[in-house]
Amino acid sequence: MQPLLIYNTLSHQKELFKPLTPDHVGMYVCGPTVYGDGHLGHARPAITFDVVFRYLRHLGYKVRYVRNITDVGHLEHDADEGEDKIAKKARLEQLEPMEVAQYYTNRYHAAMDALNVLRPSIEPHASGHILEQIELVQKILDAGYAYVSNGSVYFDVRKYQEDTHKYGCLSGRVIDEMLSTTRELDGQDEKRFSGDFALWKKAAPEHIMRWNSPWSVGFPGWHTECTAMGTKYLGETFDIHGGGMDLMFPHHESEIAQQTSVCGHGPCKYWMHNNMITINGQKMGKSLGNFITLDEFFSGSHKDKDGKEMLDQPYTPMTIRFFILQAHYRSTVDFSNEALIAAEKGYNRLMQAYKTLGRLQPSKSSSVDVKEYRQKCYDAMNDDFNTPIVISHLFDMAKVINTVNDKKATLTQADIDELKGVMDTFVFEIMGLRDESSSDNTALIDGLMKMILDIRATAKANKDWATSDKIRDELGTLGVTVKDGKDGATWEI
Hints:
alpha/beta, Four Helix Bundle (Hemerythrin (Met), subunit A), 4-stranded parallel β-sheet, 4-stranded antiparallel β-sheet
């Protein structure tokens, strides 16, 4: 298999990827909390780890990809107090919490399908794994790293740190800093230390979502969900744990602490974190109220809090996907209409080059060496999934294709086949792009264009230049470019 380097957030360096079990990969990625429509910030981790999933499978690994649905326990502001995000939405809309969760799960799936994000191997729901979470909490209590307070159970961060010196190993946080920066919360007096986090919360009388446990009628803490579900489906140690950089603390840091307290080690070998989507330098997110939903991108309509339209036009799902892949997953991406319009042009350029490739006439010899492109694309992917470098090589290929189409270079049939194979592999299979112009109407459009160009060719043969020019110019106003060559006219959008 190709040697693959992955940047491990835990070690802060690129490491050679060696799975725990040869030819098999276990990967867990934190999924959405389903209390609202997915936005661009949700699209980035989904697309990032979709490409990881696709590439690992392409390399020949059998991948078990687990991505959870959080439908309980995620409280407001990622805190240990306040209202459950889904329960709050249910109360405001006078619905059952599971009705809210199912509705937004369905909409999340629809948006991911539009973005051509593959479904994970397993998609567990937090509410379906309450027993596993109760068992985990009991194991942490038995190990001496948790305590019961007024029916709630909290992780004892101070004791864990005294014994292991590992709290903060992922995020770089230290307890002394946390003592001075942790925000005071209602009910804080239940904790021995402000940095302790909830493993199980006793439900207030008005709390809708609740289950029986040995400690109280309540609900699990947000962090216990992923530890319990990751262990259930991937084992005590698996290969890759992924998610957004905003989850590094407290969520992933707490996962490491929970797993280490009962197993003596963290949950995975490699931690991967994608960076944020920002608007004017600020993280895009529901809690900040500055997000644009994916459906709004697709429709081209979104107004900010002042009523100003934020989108200049609709953006297709593949434009959004291409926009995200143009940047390395560990770099920040700032939203702007200009950036999305540039992504749209780049995506269309690749799709048009692929169509042009299918029309190229082979020559007896090649004036361009195309054999290096496949390995260049592999080298970029093997260097921590460097999709922007892959795209730059694909653009170089598009330039070659257009040069050959303009009769300024030649390619043999074998080299044309090689370019098609590289584009099939990296554009469609690994990058997950698809041609949005492909539909049931493609044959009809191709047929109509052939008829129009045949009429124009007849006009030219009859020296009816006015009709010939009129057809070309009218097509131009519709965004269709006609190019005349010695083998006849071709067209492109």
